[in-house]
Amino acid sequence: MKFSSQTLRTFTTLHTWVGLVAGFGLFVAFYAGALTLFHHDLPLWQTPGAATALPAGL
């Protein structure tokens, strides 16, 4: 199957934009997922001294 030059250029441009939009959408989804997964640990990582507890005595 042979495409005309204009059709090939249109498909290439469309493929580029669909890839960029899909990539950005996946980036947002994965970033939001990481924030959701680690939302309890993030404050502990921001203040390392707060997570350190003294060992309990016997």
Report on the structure:
The protein is mostly helical and 58 residues long. It has a domain at 13-41. Helices cover 66% and strands 0% of the residues. It contains two helices and no strands. The chain starts with a helix and ends in a 12-residue tail after the last helix.
Poorly predicted spans: none
Number of strands: 0
Distance between the termini: 81 Å
The pLDDT mean sits at 90
Q: Tell me roughly what share of residues is in helical segments.
A: 55-70%
Provide the β-strand percentage band.
Answer: under 5%
Shape: rod-shaped
What is the count of DSSP helices, taking H or I runs of 4+ residues? 2
Radius of gyration: 24 Å
- Alpha-beta content class: mainly alpha
Order of helices and strands: HH
- Characterize the biggest β-sheet: none
Key traits:
about 60 residues
Give the secondary structure arrangement, pairings included.
Blueprint: H1 5-37, H2 42-46
Summarize the structure.
This protein is mainly α and 58 residues long. The protein has a domain at 13-41. 66% of the residues lie in helices and 0% in strands.
